[in-house]
Write a structure and sequence with these properties.
- This protein has 4 helices and no strands.
- It is an all-alpha fold.
- The chain folds into 2 domains: about 40 residues; about 60 residues, no CATH class.
- α2 runs antiparallel to α3 and α3 packs antiparallel against α4.
Length: about 140
């Protein structure tokens, strides 16, 4: 009976030591956090401020594509369409129609002449050749 008593006492002591060790480990961070915040005031949230590297960017300049002319491309498309047989006229006629619609926008500066010609060339994907004025 003496042996079992000592085993029980040893288990209780071990349990108390391990339990008290866990409580101290849990209490230390809890105690450390309030003392740290109590001694120093909380830092204010940093507000975004404009620095030299984050200066506001100026707005982009307005489009100044006024001018340009793709009427030569439109005329070349119409001339080529008139020379081709009926079965091959489709791509040239549709490209000429698109070209006529874009010509006014190019003259007003709404779109760039190079972009307009690129759009016209896209209409000619099935065509056998692209007129030189549209390149």
């Amino acid at each position: 009976m003496k042996n079992t008593t000592w085993i029980w006492i040893g288990c209780v002591v071990a349990l108390l030591c391990s339990a008290s060790g866990c409580k101290k480990a849990e209490e230390e961070p809890a105690d450390a956090a309030p003392s740290a915040t109590a001694s120093t005031p909380p830092a204010p949230d940093p507000t975004p401020t404009a620095s030299a590297s984050e200066a506001p960017k100026p707005p982009p300049p307005p489009v100044t594509n006024v001018g340009g002319d793709i009427s030569g491309c439109c005329a070349a498309l119409k001339a080529d369409a008139s020379k081709l047989p009926t079965k091959d006229k489709g791509p040239y006629q549709s490209a000429a129609a698109v070209c006529d619609g874009l010509a006014g926008k190019v003259k007003s500066g709404a779109i760039n002449a190079a972009d307009a010609k690129r759009t016209v060339r896209a209409q000619l994907q099935r065509a056998t050749s692209i007129p030189g004025a549209c390149r």
